[in-house]
Amino acid sequence: MERRPAVRSDVCETDGALLHHEVRGSGPALLMISGAGGDAGYYSGVAEELADAFTVITYDRRGNSRSTGRSAEPMDLAQQAADARALIESVAGGRALVFGNSAGAIIGLTLAASHPRVLTGLVAHEPPAVNVLPDGDPDRSFFDDMAALYAEGGGSAAGRRFAATTRGEGTYRWPDDLWKRFLGNQDHLFGTEWPGFAGFLPDGAALKAAPFPIVLGAGAADRGAYYARPSVEIARRIGVPWVEFPGIHMEFLRNPAIFAAALRVLATQMLSREGRVPQEWAR
């Protein structure tokens, strides 16, 4: 029977919140930032797959699931980035490669622009940064449309519509505990976090000047989707590579082994650029 890597759970206290986080494995630090729902459980399977080569850190974002800090006041992206920075400083020894999906990719891009000293690299997977799309593009109204639906019908109505816009959702089963926590996070997502994500524009100058590699990417099954198209435009604007990942928006939850295999290759290349060999192989 295959043994699963040990999971070390703890909390990180920062700016009035306790951030639940989980650590697996050893090696270079890899912080994984989740998107809507903000739950570490999205990445449990991928973290287990990568724990043989990386110290994988996952966490519940502020106000979500097992973390505290929920507030009725809108949360800006600066706070989200500061939380990620605090985790890297307290858990990862001050520097980490960062992977973010969806809203987590938006947070990762914000972190890279505002706190570059704590990153060794960034992989931004399908940031729904619709403000980079051309004027008049119908996808630019996504966040406003969802905000109006939330105001009219509440978190359940908005959550159902949100899932319907995401390819592949409903074709596989979420873990029961993750699903239950997500349902409890919907009002926080649409009522508190939404304005920050809606207003996001990448800081092109800061990202171009980043002293570490940045890669944008999207899933092969998501061509043309509102949350995938911006990745191509951001990569073009800041002059960095773009890569195609396997599957759908949340392939890491549907098929973690396949997604982890792709991320393993990319992360290893990013950390061993300029011919440097990862410490785990230089023995």
From TrEMBL:
Record has Transferase as a keyword: yes
UniProtKB keywords: Transferase
Superkingdom as given in the UniProt entry: Bacteria
GO BP: any one term: glycerolipid catabolic process
Molecular function terms from GO: transferase activity; triacylglycerol lipase activity
UniProt cross-references to InterPro entries, sorted A to Z: AB_hydrolase, AB_hydrolase_1, AB_hydrolase_fold
Residue ranges constituting the AB hydrolase-1 domain according to the UniProt record: 28-191
Xref: Pfam families: Abhydrolase_1 (PF00561)
Protein name: Acetyltransferase/esterase
Species the sequence originates in: Streptomyces viridochromogenes (strain DSM 40736 / JCM 4977 / BCRC 1201 / Tue 494)
